[in-house]
Amino acid sequence: MTPVEKHADSYAQTIRLLFNDILQSKHSADRVVASYFRLNKKHGGRDRRIIRETLFALFRWYGWLKHLPAANEEQRWFRQLAVCGLLEQHSWQPTLEAWQQRAGLLPHVATPWQQLTEATEQLQLWFAGSDFPAQALVPEWFWAQLPELSEHQKIQLLQSLSSRPPLWLRVQRLPTVQAIQSLEAAGLSVKASTFFDDAISLGHQSINLNELPFYKAGYLEVQDLASQVIGHICAPTATEHWWDACCGAGGKSLQLASQMQNRGRIVASDIRQHALLELQKRASRAQFDIISTALWQSDHLPVAQEKFDGVLVDAPCSCTGTWRRNPDMRWLNDVTAVTDKPSLQLDILQRASTAVKTGGKLVYATCSLAYAENRTVVDRFLSSNPDFRLQMLQHPFTGERTEYLTVWPFEADTDGMFVVRMCRQ
């Protein structure tokens, strides 16, 4: 074997090990990959990129890959790697050619595609007669969770889920123009959002944010554009008192603090102490001192009742809206990831609502696209809480007026989100 072929085989073995580990353990790909690289310092930047991007591509296209024709499992594995390189238009051509040779495929260089039908045509050059239906790129149970989606929208969604999402950042504590100029001076390509003044995209550039002075100084936060919609729906003012009831690592708490210009008060809660500690670190880096934390681990509220101008319930969910960013989750979860959540979501929403004062806002959000976790939960809550009323919202990307706002990934190159805003009468 040539040195290139040896390297290609080594990559293939490592990726296969990680891929099987993820499927068997059902641990997230991010977690498994991070653990592997932490234990294996031998890999350089190029090695890490080939391993990581190919691994995620395998999950992105797994609905097609698992049915590829092959003489044996070894050939099928190399065919799967070769197809990933073709569809993702990876740049490590010598490695891809070695994988194609091991797969028994004729050399074929990827060409850009825009529609899934064009991706199918490229595969037909290798696998004439094989069928590659677009809807197979997600598990079959998923479609039953989206009863309001048209056939055209389903194709749009699949095309979004078949592409890598950009890296969205939110600028805080300084003008966005200044942040863009500083990042461009550091050699980065930056694109400003046309929807939010403080949002920028770094596209698909491979960067280490921890090495950026502006990031270390707290002027930038990683936050997908769809997630940023939630803060704009909350629309807090500098004098208000807000409770982020399910804050996680605190991305939306930080967004609220930025919108409030570090004035007013925010209480952030979660059931996990380590999440609150992470938020405290991020708030300190951002120099926001209006955020306090309160652990929520019982049926009793960790905050006072009827005292808040606004309460945000970013409820735990199936995270189907993040499948573009986390393609492994399509195949690690089953339908119970959706069906197990609504009762918990309703319970959290019901308890958290008691903290809203008269005239205050209650915002319910998920990063799920499933009807059962979104509108169904809201409607059940409203049916037993007549003192709350839905408010009309304007979709920031489409301009649509609606009470139930769903952000679809194909609307603005984002993740998927759902949000409503209610007012206590």
From TrEMBL:
This protein's GO CC annotations: cytosol
Keyword annotations of the record: Methyltransferase, RNA-binding, S-adenosyl-L-methionine, Transferase
Membrane-spanning intervals of the chain: none
Domain of life: Bacteria
GO molecular function: RNA binding; rRNA (cytosine-C5-)-methyltransferase activity
Binding positions for S-adenosyl-L-methionine per the UniProt entry: 270, 314
Domain SAM-dependent MTase RsmB/NOP-type: start-end pairs: 157-425
Classification via PROSITE patterns: SAM_MT_RSMB_NOP (PS51686)
Family that this chain belongs to: Belongs to the class I-like SAM-binding methyltransferase superfamily. RsmB/NOP family.
Protein's name according to its UniProt entry: 16S rRNA (Cytosine967-C5)-methyltransferase
Organism whose genome encodes this protein: Shewanella fodinae
